[in-house]
Amino acid sequence: MKTNLKKGFFLIEMIFYVVILFFMLAIVIQVVYSIAKNDRIIESVRSIENSAINTLERVSREVRGAESVATTTGSLILNRTSTTTSEFYLSLGRVYLKENGVVTGALTEADATVTSLIFTRFATSTIEGVRTAITVEAGTSTHYRVENFYSSAVIR
């Protein structure tokens, strides 16, 4: 009788440890999934921010050094001297820079898409400048992010 009772307690004890192990495994799997999900979100946000920072920083730097500004639908043309020009434009979801008629490359990252790029010229009797608005998106369907960024620069 004692051996049957010991076997019963042993069986209950084993079931108890298996249940605890199962719950611990479930918690570990949930933590790993959560970390992977957050990593994808952070990667999307990083791509968006890097694209916006690179574009707005370069536009601001070029505007400050320009002598005159011309805006057209979706593009900004800056004349630095009579022979030196810079043009920023949106093509296929990426912002490109063209200097003196030669495309120097994209300012945005490949995994980010620019859905809107608006240049607005402003001028008073003493200053002239450009306001830039850009909308950048990145990520997959479950980790999709869209951000708007704004910047202004004045010709010096």
Structural account:
The protein is 40% helix and 39% strand. It is an alpha+beta fold and 156 residues long. The chain has one domain (2-154). A five-stranded antiparallel beta sheet has the order 1-2-3-4-5, with helices on one face. The chain has a three-stranded antiparallel beta sheet with strand order 6-7-8, with helices on one face. The mean pLDDT is 89.
Walk across the major sheet and give the strand order: 1-2-3-4-5
Q: What is the chain-wise order of helices and strands?
A: HEEEEEEEE
Secondary-structure-derived class:
alpha+beta
Strand count, sense and barrel status of the largest sheet are: 5 strands, antiparallel
Question: What are the key terms here?
Answer:
1 helix, 39% strand, alpha+beta, 156 residues
Write the layout of secondary structure elements.
Layout: H1 2-64, E1 68-72, E2 75-79, E3 85-91, E4 94-99, E5 102-106, E6 112-123, E7 128-138, E8 145-154
Antiparallel strand pairs: 1-2, 2-3, 3-4, 4-5, 6-7, 7-8
Quick summary:
The protein is of the alpha+beta class.
